[in-house]
Amino acid sequence: MRRSHVTTVSLLMATVLCGCTRANDVLDPSAIKPTAGQAAPVAQGGAAPTVPAMPATQPASTATPAQSAAVMARIRLQIAPIVGPTVEAATPLTERLGLRARERGLALTGSSGAQTPTHVLKGYFSAVSEGPDTTVIYVWDVYDPAGNRLHRINGQQKAPSVKGGDGWTAVAPATMQAIADAAIEQLAAWLAANPG
């Protein structure tokens, strides 16, 4: 019976992710600009949730650090509007995405910037609260400037719910920051393994 429930929840989340197309479901990360020198938020109440390991199907990077740095220096990444989370839930995610991307040497471009992006990262999210935990299900698609999907990163992050919350109100900032960390690390590994 438990397996049936998990399957039902998974199918429901897939439907929700596909159905998030209304304008008010979208958050444009370029609207959130951390101030200069602003530090990344620290998880409240302890350490950040663990980040799932990269799937075994991901190609391992054999590039040297110098080669990886050269590849990253050529990338101009645009983070497209994120579908699904509330502004409150997405703010720590988008701030951390920008911070981690810059730390990895990726240049960020806006949707109306002077530089054309080489890659566009678009995220789709859903949150499910069950008992004391909330699971955030996410999909990141990497596109070229012409709109061709090049790569997909997906997964889920389960963490204790924020007291009194349900759905997005139950998602702690540390959970969203952990997702951003995993996304940038997996994106950087894929870019280093696919420099073309």
- Along the chain, the helix and strand elements come as HEHEEHEEEEH
The helicity comes to 25-40%
N/C terminus separation: 47 Å
The biggest sheet amounts to: 5 strands, mixed
Structural class by secondary-structure content: alpha/beta
The gross shape turns out to be elongated
Q: What is the count of β-strands?
A: 7
Uncertain runs with pLDDT below 50, 5 residues or more? 1-61
Average pLDDT taken over every residue: 74
- Whole-angstrom Rg: 17 Å
Beta-strand content bin:
15-25%
Number of helices: 4
Q: How are the strands ordered across the major sheet?
A: 4-2-5-6-7
Structure description:
The chain is of the alpha/beta class. It is 34% helix and 23% strand. The chain is built from four helices and seven strands. It has a five-stranded mixed sheet with strand order 4-2-5-6-7. It is elongated. The N terminus is likely disordered.
List keywords for this structure.
196 residues, alpha/beta, five-stranded mixed β-sheet, two-stranded antiparallel sheet, 4 helices, 34% helix
In short:
With 196 residues, the protein is α/β, with parallel strands linked by helices. It has helices at residues 2-19, 65-74, 87-103, 173-193, and strands at 26-27, 76-79, 82-83, 107-109, 119-130, 133-143, 149-160. The longest helix is centred in the last third of the chain and has 21 residues, at 173-193.
